[in-house]
Each structure stands twice: as C-alpha cells, then as structure tokens.
Amino acid sequence: MFSLHWILRRSTLIYRHVSTIDPRTRRKQVLRQKILDVSREILLSQGFAALTMRRVAEAIDYSPAAIYLHFQSREQIAQELCFGGLRRLYERLQSVTAKDPATRLCGYANAYLEYSQSDPETYRLIFMADSQLTKAVFTHRDSGGGEAALRLIVTAFTELHSGSKKTCGKPSELAELFWASLHGLASLRIACSQALTGDEFRLAQLITEKITGTASQQRR
C-alpha cells in the first residue's frame, strides 16, 4: 500500500538526483534542445531548404560556432529531428492493441496516415526531402523508431500467416509492401493531394484487406 511518506521520500530522492546534474551539462542540454526546437520551427514554416546553421544561430541569438559544438551540420540536425519523428510514428502504431492481427493492421494503417497528416513536414523530411538524408536515417544505429515500427507490422503478418492455411507471401515482404503502400498514400496527400480522388483512409483499408486476404474472406 502506498503512503504519503513514501511518495514524499521518493520525490525527495528524485529531486536530489536531478539537482546533482552539473550546471554546465544542464546548459549544454538546454542549448541542444533549443537548437532542435528552433530547427523544427524553421522546418515547419519554411521547409528543409531553409534550414541552415547560420539561420538557426540567428534565431537563438548564438554564434554559428556554438551550434557546431552540438551538431556538425544541418544534416545532423535534420537526422535528429527524423529520429524523433520515427519515434512518434512508432508510438502511434504501438497504441493499436487489437488482438486480431488483421484488425491490428487496419489500425496500423489509420495510425500511419494520421501521423503523416499531423506532422507533414517531419514526414516529408524523413521520407521525401533528400534521398541521402533518408538513407542516413534508416542506416544509422539510432534509428530505432523505424525498425521498431516495422517489427510491429512484421509481427502482425507473422501472426496472420501462422493462423491461416493460405500462404500469401513472407511476413517480412508483406510488411514492406504494406508500408510502401501506406507511404504512397501519405506522400501523395502531402505532395499532390489532387492525385487522390478518394479518401486515403478508405483506400488504406482496401489495401490492407487485399494484402491480408480478409476481403475475399468477407465475401464468402
């Protein structure tokens, strides 16, 4: 049973732990976060082309040299923003908890499109702004959000495959096909919404039904 004494004691311990952080380290952490926050604002308002080290330095009233102490280039800043975006995408997918794998995949499809529409500039930065940046993000050892998101999808297809006598492809291949299809819908909505004459969420459900084979089962 929890007691007020225990809570107060634990709060004191936490406070003491936080308070032991070296002031210089804390200032570095604050500045690093300020650089990322300002860079994100520039990205959202003006796009990737407008993100420069000098512009970031001017926005936070620091010298460019101070920025280089934390990030070697605008590409490195962009990578850090991409990692954050992939973590948020993973969190969206992780919130889908349906036991049935086909139902879960439908939820993943909705969550994926909802994320791309809630943060279109970060999505564009991750997947559409620059091919070299995208490659760097997905081959970097810290790109855990993207790998974790793909694992969720692969797991759902593995469960679907093991529960069905019909073989429709390897779970890893189906997961990549699923992701590629959702990316196509998301990128079209962001870059050229006129190309989509239908609702992308409805199209995503149709794609999911086709890939999982649930459409044919429902017609029986």
Major sheet characteristics: none
* Class computed from helices, strands and strand pairing: mainly alpha
Mean pLDDT: 83
The total domain count is 2
**What is the count of β-strands?**
0
What keyword list fits this structure?
76% helix, Arc Repressor Mutant, subunit A, mainly alpha, 220 residues, 2 domains, disordered C terminus, Tetracycline Repressor, domain 2, single chain, disordered N terminus
Structure description:
With 220 residues, this protein is mainly alpha-helical. It folds into 2 domains: 22-72, Homeodomain-like (Arc Repressor Mutant, subunit A); 79-215, Tetracycline Repressor, domain 2 (Orthogonal Bundle), CATH 1.10.357. It has helices at 4-19, 23-46, 53-60, 64-68, 74-94, 101-118, 120-127, 131-139, 144-162, 171-191, 200-212, 214-219. Helix 5 (74-94) crosses helix 7 (120-127), helix 6 (101-118) packs antiparallel against helix 9 and helix 10 (171-191) runs antiparallel to helix 11. The longest helix has 24 residues, at 23-46. It starts with a helix and ends with a helix.
